[in-house]
Design goal:
The structure holds two protein chains of two kinds. Chain A is built from eight helices and nine strands. Chain A is α/β, with parallel strands linked by helices. The longest helix of chain A is centred in the last third of the chain and has 14 residues.
């Protein structure tokens, strides 16, 4: 068991972002975290990463509170996080200082495979920037990788490279959770899909089991969220 | 080859595709299949899915796995039989469509012949 949540509640003032979430994450799994905007996906990922504390309930990563497992669980934010003036080699220096488990060799390999230009972040296209930031996260030797909308707003080729890089980074002993709106495109990557609706887990199922009933994850998503959901690619 | 998530489990679709490779000789008896990771990256699917694919192929007697060395096409695999079996599956799907259109088999065979003729390059003219 990589991580487990039980009865997790999180409020922002009067708004309940998470209303009692139970979840288990196992080694070797790639989990798709799907749901409309505002359903609590980012809040959930941040709680697993130890960046937020739940108001109620328990969350554990490798048997301990997430904050005790810094470095074992890593989070890639949705919004760009690297400063505009930084260039990929400088990002390397920064990240090496922050993270003990930063793998320089893998970082360089990822930059190469993802074709990230050697220029300052501010001069990169959205896709190039997204690929660079993914490289910084996949270069870490972590157990649990939490990716928050890694494909959002990026061009087709960037999205393709990112999905392939996640597959290349997959290990038997690691886990991935990918929050995304691009359900149809990312679908074949998922072992399991967790649908989050208004702060609750609405569905938690193995992807191939859904397909055995002749429905793709995209079809089930539309059934579950129907008109309330955002346009799904 | 496109994977259709709403046409049943992905691992079965991929297993059929690999079977086609063997049926048409792109993979020969004794040949080594791509590593699980390589196939997963190529088709952009979860590596666990590929594990299931190779398991299915082994179950069908098309491949075998040697620990630490990889997955190989069986030497004694019946390529002709495999080709016939895959074609029979395709025929089944075709006939289901025919039936769904409320047509008889004779009509289907006629149409098959017409389409085949249309595909031949014209001679003379």
């Amino acid at each position: 068991m990589l991580a487990s949540l039980s009865g997790v509640i999180k409020r922002y003032g009067r708004v309940e972002a998470l209303r009692g979430v139970d979840l288990e994450l196992k080694r070797g799994e790639i989990v798709g975290l799907l749901g409309p905007n505002g359903s609590g996906k980012t809040t959930l990922l941040k709680i697993i990463a130890g960046l937020l504390l739940p108001d109620r309930g328990r969350v554990e990563v490798l048997g301990a509170p997430p904050r005790k497992r810094r470095g074992k669980v890593v989070y890639l934010p949705e919004l760009p996080y690297l400063p505009g003036w930084m260039e990929p080699p400088e990002a390397l220096i920064l990240l090496e200082r922050i993270f003990l488990n930063f793998n320089e060799k893998r970082y360089r390999e990822l930059l190469r495979v993802l074709r990230v230009p050697d220029r300052a972040v501010r001069s990169l296209s959205k896709g190039e920037r997204g690929r660079l930031e993914l490289a910084t996260i996949l270069a870490l030797d972590a157990d649990l990788y939490l990716l928050d909308e890694p494909l959002g707003g990026l061009d087709l080729v960037s999205r393709d490279r990112i999905l392939r890089s996640v597959i290349a980074a997959w290990r038997q002993d690691a886990g991935f959770v990918i929050a995304t709106h691009l359900v149809a495109e990312a679908e074949p990557l998922f072992d399991r899909v967790v649908f989050l609706g208004e702060g609750r887990v609405v569905l938690d199922a193995m992807a191939e089991e859904l397909r055995e009933r002749g429905k793709g994850v995209r079809d089930v998503y539309l059934e579950v969220f129907g008109d309330a959901g955002l346009p799904v690619a | 080859m496109r994977l259709e998530p709403n046409r049943g489990p992905i691992y079965l679709q991929l297993a059929r595709e690999i079977s086609r490779w063997v049926a048409r000789g792109d993979l020969r008896p004794g040949d080594k299949l791509p590593s699980i990771r390589a196939l997963a990256e190529r088709f952009r699917v979860n590596p666990n899915t590929v594990v299931q694919v190779y398991g299915e192929l082994e179950r069908r007697g098309i491949t075998y796995t040697r620990r630490g060395q990889g997955t190989f096409v069986r030497e004694e695999v019946d390529v002709k039989g495999l080709r016939r079996a895959l074609l029979a599956e395709a025929a089944q799907a075709f006939l289901e469509e025919v039936s769904a259109l409320g047509l008889a088999v004779e009509e289907a065979i006629k149409t098959l012949q017409e389409v085949t003729n249309a595909r031949q390059p014209k001679r003379g003219d």
